[in-house]
Amino acid sequence: MYTLWIANKNYSSWSLRPWVLLKALGIPFNERLSYFEDGKSSYNKFKEFSPTGLVPCLVDGDITIWDSLAIAEYLAEEHVQVWPLDKRARAWARSAAAEMHSSFAALRQICAMNCSIRTELEEITSDLQRDIDRIDALWSEGLTKFGGEWLAGDKFTVVDAFYAPVALRAQSYGLNFSAISQEWIDRMLKHPAMVEWVSAAIKEPKLAH
Ligand SMILES: N[C@@H](CCC(=O)N[C@@H](CS)C(=O)NCC(=O)O)C(=O)O
Fold it and tell me: What InterPro entries does this protein's entry cite (predicted)?
């Protein structure tokens, strides 16, 4: 059985991605949660199980896979439903997940994931608005082009998992998206795997810094 190392559900957006993917697809795994160190780097703590000192980290027997995108690709070798089955949808989903993995610095920095808060930003900077607009365009494209409830068709796949933390950020910071994107956000927030994650997140001890 897989072991997935994660950090605080309240804060760790990278942990959420493979966790929600495994849950949504019904792939069994053991969860190992290691809390962030408060006020300092967790590198030394996480280095005990992860070569980069970062989470998530997946362990499968004597094989260790670090980094969320590599974990998704590793899982896809065994579980064909990780990516969309349709070639066009798969190409789009791969591009969109890679874009999430490499981009959106303003969104990440200004709207850090925190499942327990509801707030409004005093200012939407132009960099943040650019990230929101790009994500909105991307989601609208996927939902329209592939015609399903999920970003790349009628099945939840890894591209939905990769944008799951953005749905939580939209809720926490009151970010505005188009109607079709907002419907996806609402669907994502109601998904049983997300409900399970968030209900555990809000019960966790919170960091002071
Ligand atoms: N590119 C990595 C990013 C992993 C990452 O940055 N993880 C954060 C948690 S969300 C972490 O482990 N931070 C350690 C720390 O804050 O000390 C991935 O996709 O898995």
Answer: Glutathione-S-Trfase_C_sf, Glutathione_S-Trfase, Glutathione_S-Trfase_N, Thioredoxin-like_sf
